[in-house]
Amino acid sequence: YYRCPFILSTSASALYFKSVNVCLAIFCRIFIYTHRRMAITADDVSLEDIIPISLDFVVVEGELLSYVVSHLSFQEEELELRLPFGSHSRLFLSEVNRAWSGRSDLRDTCMFEWLNKYHKATRGQGVVRIAPLSATITKLSQHRKTGLSSCFFYQGISSREDRDDLVRSSSHTPSNKAQILAMPQFGLRDNLIKCELLKNEDLYTYLEDFSFFLGTYNVNGQTPKESLHPWLSCTPYPPDMYCVGFQELDLSKEAFFFNDTPKELEWTKAVSEALHPDAKYALVKLVRLVGIMLIFYVKKEHAEFISDVEAETVGTGIMGRMGNKGAVAIRFRFHNSDICVVNSHLAAHIEEYERRNQDYKDICGRLQFRQLDATQPPLTIMKHDVIFWIGDLNYRISELDVDNVKELISKKDFETLHNYDQLKRQIDEDAVFVGFVEGDIDFQPTYKYDTGSDKWDTSEKCRVPAWCDRILWRGKNIKQHHYQSHMALKTSDHKPVSSLLVTGRVNSEAYKKTFEEIVRNIDKMENECIPSVTLAKREFHFKDVKYMQHQAETLSLFNDGQVPCQFEFIQKPNELTYCKPWLTANPPKGFIAQGGSVEIELEVFVNRSTAPDLNSGKEQIEDILVLHLERGKDYFISVTGNYLPSCYGTSIRALCHMREPIQDMPQETLRELVSMSANENTVNTEKPLDIPKELWMMVDHLFRNAIKQEDIFQQPGLRSEFADIRDCLDTGMPDSLPGSNHSVAEALLLFLDALPEPVVPFSFYQQCLEICSNASQCEKVISMLPQCHQNVFNYLAAFLRELLKNSSSNRLDVNILATIFASLLLKSPTKQDLAEKRKTQEFFQHFLTQGST
């Protein structure tokens, strides 16, 4: 299904459909849907026509100014499409040609009787009416245009040979842009045009009153108790778009565990009722991750200019997955601008600013949007023209006590107070939000208030007031009209914040003129020379690679040829990907202007899927990358390194046979331990350990230091501290584990997650699901596990029961622990659905009750 804006011409006075959706069905027919605005509901779309792809079908392309002109012919009827240059048009035409090639192998004539049901359809409730083919498709002779260059018209083509001649004749005309669409170097030309347009964007961009209302509100798990009108309708004129973000929408366990909450509907309704009354808005997209929600509305008259809407989420909670912290984002195209809106909730607590920095970087790195063209890499946040970032960023005011902060607030000396703001300091140090802008803050901190009032926190903790709730942006031609908090709303312990931003847009006439000039210049230099690049180095060595520790080297390319070039890392023969799974090249493909250069990050990262074979020595840090230039030669790049074995990614059985730290073990011994079966004798005669010593060290540390730790196993640790803990476990130095209790707790979870065979082996998984409601049967299954696995299971269950005895201090309960640990101890060999997830939790809960042994 391709959303492909094009112009549909059916007569001498052409009919122009501003946006048309084209559905290329598996049964080889093209469905043409039309709408004059963005499709919000089914009523906005009508089925305009259906074109079978048969032996009588043919596509001929030519050029007209900045459009590719495609003539689709079926029997005696023909249709002219004018598609804009770009990857979407290329993908559409390639799919049409692929479908036609498949149909050309059929020997029998297809009658296409299925078309009759569409022609007989009438307009009614839920029924879409279409006109007969003849009503919308006319012969080319009736509307042949002048001014088309390299445009071909053919009729009565019956044989495959004639069709092949047609394809050859149209594909190899140098000035024909069908060549660009059909051949690989189209990507090069497309990128060159985009590059030149970016250089000259000042020529065709101007400010127009397209306003974005951005709002963020941490609602502390409350339901709407008051109108949001003072917040969302605070502007004198209605904004063109609303992007409204919430955090802590629902703090219940159901929302946390199953991402299900009735409050989504309640707050969405409250927002829709509070939008500016002087305009009508359409809900374009809503996305939610546990309590983080983002809603995107647009004025109905602008809806037709919205396209390519996608939404994604990423969790940054415990183990980097839980959705109690993280971000949701929506990206879309408005006119010619790619815009991304991010709503995030970062780590809490005043001392955790480094964790907040890490959350920000994780969101930027892990949140990716798929593209309609599957051959293109996903879009990251930073690949957009405009980025709006809102949310409870949780940065606090430090180095001032609560009394000094309140005194500065009473004096409205926000400028002085802002100097102590953690976010400002981190931005000044280029630690986070590089290239982003935040408006001047001239309102008092938005956190923390007593719920239902304007009084600062009077609880025992007496939180220091802070600007937790922020709005930032990145991009050109953006002006802020206001940035303020809204004290009138008292539902939460936070106050909502809003900003009104006005963005630039493209002057279509100036854009067209610039585009045509660029195309003319490119035509002059195309095919003049073979592209070439110079590589700064071709051999890369990564020293002492460790589990979950990122290493990167820079590959520099310089375009020393006479023309721009397109590069891409390509697969080697008999391999599915261009590199080993522990290696990535970023970017894997790209464009270099003449005389330009690009830096490619070669990144090595060993995770739970790649660690087992590297630990055992079955795999090495060795690979060859093939860098291919379009219409040029290939370059070979060597990547080598040495991996330091880790207990992370090593089996329970192997670890029980290691009395020394894993990095003190000879490689041959590691290989033998990993390869031996449960019935084989070990390489030495020593009795194996009951449980892995690494597991004991972590659990013992938590038992002695964190039994009453608040939010243990719920609050993430620091990545830097995890690295120290991993090194301690793998080398035996120092004698005691470093880092905070939260970091040790997360290290334990990561250890369990990395096991090649889970604590409950895969072979027992289905049996556990079947008897999950029977406690005695569950215990019987555990008694059947291999001895080392059984010991680990019982040891962990006993430890967790001790934690539950202190639930008044650590705020844990059976549901929380079952949810966190069941997914690690009982893993599915395949993807686990929600029903299975609940059964694993039910199974493990039997072992967390006080009566368990």
From TrEMBL:
Record PROSITE patterns: RHOGAP
Gene Ontology terms, MF aspect: inositol-1,4,5-trisphosphate 5-phosphatase activity; phosphatidylinositol-4,5-bisphosphate 5-phosphatase activity
Intracellular or extracellular location(s): Cytoplasmic vesicle, Phagosome membrane; Early endosome membrane
Location of the Rho-GAP domain: 674-853
Keyword Nucleus: no
Pfam families, A to Z: Exo_endo_phos2, INPP5B_PH, OCRL-like_ASH, RhoGAP
E.C. no: 3.1.3.36
Main location: membrane
Keywords, alphabetical: Cytoplasmic vesicle, Endosome, Hydrolase, Lipid metabolism, Membrane
Top-tier EC class: hydrolase
Domain of life the protein comes from: Eukaryota
Family annotation (CDD domains): INPP5c_INPP5B, RhoGAP_OCRL1
GO CC term (a single one): early endosome membrane
One of the protein's GO biological processes: phosphatidylinositol dephosphorylation
Presence of the UniProt keyword Ion transport in the record: no
Similarity field: Belongs to the inositol 1,4,5-trisphosphate 5-phosphatase type II family.
Name by which UniProt lists this protein: phosphoinositide 5-phosphatase
Organism lineage string: Eukaryota, Metazoa, Chordata, Craniata, Vertebrata
